[in-house]
Amino acid sequence: MQILPSFFGFTSKVRGWSIATFRINKGISEITMLDVPKQRQWFQVKNKECGGVADPFLIKHNNRYYMFFEYEYKKPLYKDADIAYATSKDGINWTYKEKILEESFHQSFPYVFKMKGDFYMLPESYQSNQVRLYKAIDFPKKWILDTVLFEGKKLVDTIFLIKDSVYYWFTTNLNTSELLLFYSDSFKGTWVQHPCSPISKDISNNRNAGAIIEEENHYYRLAQDATEGYGSGVNLFGIEKISKQEYQEKLIKKPFLYKNKGMIKDALHHVSFLEEDEHIVAIDGANFAIRGIEIK
User: Domain Glucosamine inositolphosphorylceramide transferase 1 N-terminal spans what residues (predicted)?
Assistant: First the structure.
């Protein structure tokens, strides 16, 4: 999550995000706000340094659940956030562990996935002007920079989809607010801009809100909606066609999940979906008044 100029009218940086997880027996396209439990146990890191947690990514390994997230700092620093993780036995009740990726620049959106037996992380690191791929050498604690996939632009919230042995990379240019699409013929290969790129400049869908979800041979893209301010919700799109020549997506649900009340009164902008017999969903949310921030 990149902290943007406030749309509430105060001049300091917005803080106070939290994360909640819940289980559900529905596919991603069937979920509505009515399925989000009213009584959620919100995960927070309660220490003097941390001002909030956001951008959760869930993964299960050796019968244990892991959640990687953006760890925000309370005080203004030369950067706003780094990457940390928590563990759980049931996917609902979480124990904070530690920060695992600290760089000299802002980091968020820790997209963690497994590829050919290894764990990788693709965090947002726009201040470096690079898309940086990290590899776990001691999962989940120790990570090293493996490859710089792209450089020269401020790209945020990068995700990918593998289809017919081609890698398709979805990312947003922070300077132009364009959702871009690239492809490559290998996981760490050179990116080629897709002929349909940019996909969108619309603030209701031009920024990713989580990883691509594959369910019953269908692909879904989660998109941040900022039409009512940063973090106003998430919309759901189905990918209809994707090849080196074509790209087409269809709106499935708008709004999908959105700021509402309680701990998500002021913002919600990220969803993680872990497929199991009973799926686990993670969302982030913010209620700045609850966290003691005066809203003008």
Answer: 53-263
